[in-house]
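thread from #wetlab-drylab

HS: before we spend reagent money on co-crystallization trials with beta-D-fucopyranose, can we at least see a predicted complex? here's what I'd submit
DV: go for it
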Amino acid sequence: MNGMTSSTTPDLLVGPGVRLNPGALSFPPGFLWGAATAAYQVEGAAHVGGRTDSIWDAFARVPGAVLDGHDGEVACGHYDLYRQDVALMKDLNLGSYRFSTSWSRVRPDGGAPNAEGLDFYSRLVDELLAAGIKPWLTLYHWDLPQALEEKGGWVNRDTAYLFAEYAATVHDALGDRVGVWTTLNEPWCSAFLGYTGGVHAPGRQSRPDGLAAAHHLLLGHGLAVQELRSRDADLDLGITLNFTLPDPADPDDPADVDAARRIDAQFNRIFLEPIIRGAYPQDLLEDVAEYGLLDHVRDGDLDIISAPIDALGVNYYHGELVGAHPAPGARAGEAPVERPTSSPYPAADGVHNHPRGLPVTSMDWEVQPEGLTRLLLRLHEEYTGPAGVTLYVTENGAAYDDVPDATGFVQDDERVSFFDLHLRAVHEAIQRGVDVRGYFAWSLMDNYEWAWGYHKRFGIVRVDYDTLERTPKASARWYAEVARTGALPAQP
Ligand code: FCB
């Protein structure tokens, strides 16, 4: 690939599928190096400047829903400390900052626009531009206004139309300065962790509701793309999806192969295929037939949903080995909250997770970098390549049990290794011809990790939650150098 170099040191095997190169690697010129956050996870000021409750404010008050009842009232104080945070980003040589806007700040209760809320994002964008950092704006990172949830939330079709109106409001205020617009972050989580598993806000546990929410999230995405495109044909428009890579426990056992197919359909293809191909996968429709998905699909919806996009954001944390038979020592991976939860999958009863003996992060998520290469190859070959859509890794990162020294500094070697391996996986995909143009570390700083509250730290910058002091970890220094040089040093 043009402008890329790689040494010829022997391959490094880090997982079941792909061999990664441990040598010095350089990325293509112009590759975008960023870090990501989300409004509810970092802003705080949850009831300041006209902002009203989102579903996460309400969910955090439900007894036993979030570990220790943590909420986003203060979070990282980014609403007040954004100037300092942008200065930090500049210091870390970041080319882009992926953040989300809060619907409840911009249109409190889902109602009229709130100038004070919009002004916060306007000041943030100005600060980024002055620092030479590209704003990468996501309109929805899970925080529906609670007032709209009380009218049915994403199960109510009207929410999709209100989302497009909200997109227009944000564009009115920022469209002159922001070029990259992502509609939704991880609609799988919004729909199925939120409405079927009850693990996330709003905490419902209904299979039909999860599927209705999925369709209306997709519709909202398509309507927002149409709205933004009609306002400015030059915008870079896209969506961020989270993907898993389900491998069958025994590829020769048809039941295991079917288990992997089900997870692929209900996690990956349920969003990917309507967006890229304008149709729900037939096997998915058969799997979920009894839960009424098609009752929500009206004529013309899939044309709206498949409105052309420019970029697909890929969030990757790990794949999984799945089978039709239970395996000993299966991973949990969910916050140990008191409130009962259900499976987020509408039609995967009898599918079991099989641990592979790979190292795990403190989320109990397997570290499987080669899965990212395989995922990017598959997306490029089957979906985005033929559609002419560019790929960006919009989230990748790891929580570890950080131990700060007396100054707050964390020597997070495991996190450095995690980033190093996953960047090698991205490089490998690019070398094999995949059009990946950028990478965003999750996260810029430690923050509110949803049902885990503040118990899990993903940041490259440590946040002291008592003082809100920020201290770059070793991983931040390492990443800053990668961003500066566009290259990975050879592994020791
Ligand atoms: C993703 C979310 C992000 C963060 C990471 C760890 O699913 O988009 O907000 O919680 O996981």
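DV: Residues 38, 41, 185-186, 189, 242, 315, 395, 442, 449-450, 458 surround beta-D-fucopyranose (CB under 6 Å).
HS: ok that's useful, forwarding to the group
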